[in-house]
Amino acid sequence: MKRIIVLIISLILLTACTSKEENKIAYLEYKNDLEKQDVFIDEEKLDFNVYFNIIRESEEITNYSILINNPKINMYNVKALLIHDYVIDDAFPSVGIFDTPIELLVNSGDKLELSGKIQTIDDISNIKYKLYIEYTDDNGNENKIYYDVKRG
């Protein structure tokens, strides 16, 4: 009986580790694909509103965020990743990759915010930000959006 319990616990731990590893691989694939992307959708063609904010909190910390709201269509199984071209060791902000995907539904007030920070004393005013968002619509179509984030 003791062996069975040990075996079950081992399988549970192995499954959790495998799932985390799969999430990490998926994250890296999304990130690498977005870094290489050079064709982006125009803001007018997005199925939602996008607001980008960047604030220099102190001499060493800059906070950035993107808010996605007011979807024009129902968006299910939403996954998103916001990256920039400044080299950091931290993971970029995401949703639906390491955690459960979300929904953004028309007229619901649903919103998605991705926030991150850059810790440096360097001038980072020329950093470029890119957004990847993936979702399924009411017809079951999977949509993949690459958006070059505009400042100001």
The helix tally amounts to: 1
Distance between the termini: 64 Å
Poorly predicted regions = 9-17
Mean pLDDT, nearest integer? 84
| Main beta sheet strand tally, sense and closure | 5 strands, antiparallel
Helix/strand structural class: alpha+beta
Number of strands: 8
The CATH homologous superfamily name equals: Immunoglobulins
Description:
- This protein has 152 residues and is an alpha+beta fold.
- The protein has one domain: Immunoglobulins (Immunoglobulin-like).
- Helix content is 23%, strand content 37%.
- It contains one helix and eight strands.
- A hairpin with a 4-residue loop joins strand 1 (49-56) and strand 2.
- The termini are far apart.
- Mean pLDDT is 84; it is low at 9-17.
Short description:
This protein is α+β, with helices and mostly antiparallel strands. It has one domain: Immunoglobulin-like.
Keywords:
single chain, 152 residues, alpha+beta, Immunoglobulin-like, 5-stranded antiparallel sheet, 3-stranded antiparallel sheet, 1 helix, 8 strands, 37% strand, globular
Blueprint of the fold:
Blueprint: H1 2-36, E1 49-56, E2 61-69, E3 75-84, E4 94-95, E5 102-104, E6 111-119, E7 129-136, E8 142-148
Antiparallel strand pairs: 1-2, 2-6, 3-4, 3-5, 3-7, 7-8
